[in-house]
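User: quick one - fold this with iron/sulfur cluster bound?
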Amino acid sequence: MPKALLTISAEELLRFRREMLSWFEHSRRDLDWRRTNDPYRIWLSEIMLQQTRVAAVVPYYRRFLARFPSLRSLARARLNSVLRNWAGLGYYSRARNLHRTAKQIIRDHGGRFPRNLAQALALPGVGQYTAAAVLSIAYGEPLAVLDGNVARVLVRLAAANGEIREPSLWKRLADAASGLLAGEAPGDWNQAMMELGATVCTPQAPCCEECPVAHWCRARALGIAGSLPAARRKPKTARVSLAATVLLDPDGRTLVLRDEDGGALFSRLWQFPAVAAGRSPRRALSEHLERSLGVPAATIETLASARHTVTFRDLRLLPFLVRVERLPVVPGARTPLLHELDRLPVSSATQKIAASALRAVQSSRGPRGA
Ligand code: SF4
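Assistant: Sure. Structure tokens for the protein plus iron/sulfur cluster:
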């Protein structure tokens, strides 16, 4: 049996919880999802906040709720519409799962996010963290959350060594989180722990003078708070160059395909025809156009390149503009107006390519009235 990470007497634990909850009451940020008990809204915020900062989430959260104010309205919506309202937030599997899960909740749970942990965990895209967050905040279920912020706080409180995501340490952190949980106010408790990690016990420079639980912190006592947790070994970032074609007909229409294979790069959204670029991206592209789309690429214009980073991939986008008399007929493709491309769900990589093409088209027309 591994040794407990935190040992704290019952009496001290009561003080610890009191200090944390009182600090949270006075210091909490006023965020939209903290003004509701609606499990749908809390669930949505938790999904949006995965891998995304609070400030970036707020406008998307508001816009999404204006369009889908209830779980029922989300379940009824078309996937394209959901993805369009997610566009820009990235990690589109979150939006797909959200939509699929909303339908499942309507079908299997009478339209209400299930309160039972096993049922919540059986939903697509709902893991231990999300289930504990929604159930504790919306329903007051005594389940402790453990995310990166909470883990950092716990590691410092215990002055624990090791990489946070290493499974045996993560398990001990989960046990420690459950041991600290204030059962009478689990939602507030979880939010207090996450808030402390996000605003005081921050990764680079923890503000220990402002910390309500500094008295119990071993890392602070040892003067090693700033060097914990141990740095994570990151996988190397892979460099990928991609040549993408913006085909353009005289009406300003372009051609986009649904990216089913290159999922992670364009998130299985609509994208311009693209091919991995070797040493000669122009040639690779022209061969691809002729072979796959039957487009003789005599007039390829080079557009400004752009950088785009997705998880552990540094993507160099090399866009080209190809003006054609008629767009090729490709099964399953769409031919929107280039300047209205954002009506379809597209990734920010595709948005960058479209913006580059639009700038080139506008500058080739010259100034107004010229
Ligand atoms: Fe984090 Fe400092 Fe508080 Fe310890 S005292 S939990 S290191 S902010």
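One thing worth noting: The longest helix spans residues 10-27.
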